[in-house]
Prior knowledge:
There is one protein chain. By secondary structure, the protein is α+β, with helices and mostly antiparallel strands. It folds into two domains: 4-211 and 325-414, Zn peptidases (Aminopeptidase), CATH 3.40.630; 214-323, Alpha-Beta Plaits, CATH 3.30.70. It is 30% helix and 22% strand. It contains ten helices and 17 strands. It has helices at residues 4-15, 33-48, 143-161, 189-192, 239-248, 289-310, 327-330, 335-346, 361-367, 391-410; strands spanning 51-55, 61-65, 76-81, 96-98, 106-109, 114-116, 132-134, 170-175, 196-202, 207-209, 214-223, 265-273, 277-286, 315-323, 352-353, 374-376, 388-390. It has an eight-stranded mixed β-sheet with strand order 1-2-8-3-9-16-10-15, covered by helices on one side. Helix 1 packs antiparallel against helix 3 (143-161). The longest helix is centred in the last third of the chain and has 22 residues, at 289-310.
Amino acid sequence: MLDENKILNRFISYIKIESQSDPNSLDTPSTDSQWNIANKIVGDLKKIGLSDIVIDENAYIYATLPSNSNKNCPTIGFISHFDTSPDFTGTNINPQIINNYDGNDIILNIEKNIILSSDYFPEIKQYKGQTIITTDGTTLLSADDKAGVCEIISAMEYLINNPHIKHGDIKIGFTPDEEIGRGAHKFNVNKFGADWAYTMDGSQIGELEYENFNAAQAIINVSGKIVHPGYAKNKMVNSMYYASEFINHLPNNETPENTTDYEGFYHLTSIKGEVEKTELNYIIRDHDLDKFNARKKYLIDLIESLNKKFDQNIFSIELNDQYFNMRDKIKPHMHIIQIAKEAMINLGIKPIIKPIRGGTDGSQLSFMGLPCPNIFAGGHNFHGKYEYLPLNSMISATKVICKICELTLNSENYKK
Length: 416
């Protein structure tokens, strides 16, 4: 049996270490604090007895659980990231443990009147009677993806302590800077040495995903002219007003809060503005590559149209692709999905196969030659103060990892 208290305490020890990434840094890792969690992970890997433990100059971590069987089978891997989102503070995380959750609202912070509403977030009701880990309403929880880190390490420890469970070679990897889109950039696929892998970076229990968004970033620069307001008639050009013109030309029903499933969107993530210059930062997402490319073209055409309308080059655009849908890289290897699905079914977990409305390290790794679908880590409401994690979901994810290792060895369908 898995030691639930040990897993809970391990998770809490990880989230207590601040490790947010920084999109404005060019270093890898992008923040020095990520070294703290990376070194903690390496220490834990040594304690449980893994082999070939390496942490490189960029804080990427690799380790191996050697095969304990004479059977020939593929080498598989499990990957998570240890940075947390820069979107909301992750410093001084003070988790709350809600035992035997009653299905009602959870008061996160009585002084600030911050409540995790079971009506606004109805998914939480499915965890009635379980232990739930929440924030105190002032930080995120960082279950994304320290839950995944905890699950992988806990699964490896369980397999080491239960050698009667036979398995092949298992590779594990941990990355920095996933939250700013760089988690796989310096991952050494050859050094990792797996035939395929799984990222433990999903949400709800049962999630199994091999489709994700195609993704790009768009920076819209809007130029203005500053003149003393008392003498500005026919001279001042206020870039912020023109920026609002651009915003209003985008379809307001194609935003994250108005889309679901396979529907794509434009998402305005930040505005920095003054009279002389305004910068709009967008992310563009779509599962369908043709629609994704059409979205990018729409922005380019809109820039051209607005510049013609105002008869001057007020608008310019910088477009950068971030990652692509891993579906086409996974489909030739659907046994990877089948084994994960079988593992869940064997454990009484209903597989939920659906597209990711986001991206994981796995999407980039799949294009780097390592097929890498995504499995649930258990958390909900990532990147904010309403984030929570049912303990049972984390335990279940740990069991799924162990079962995948076992099935890969013992099923004739997955031989090399």
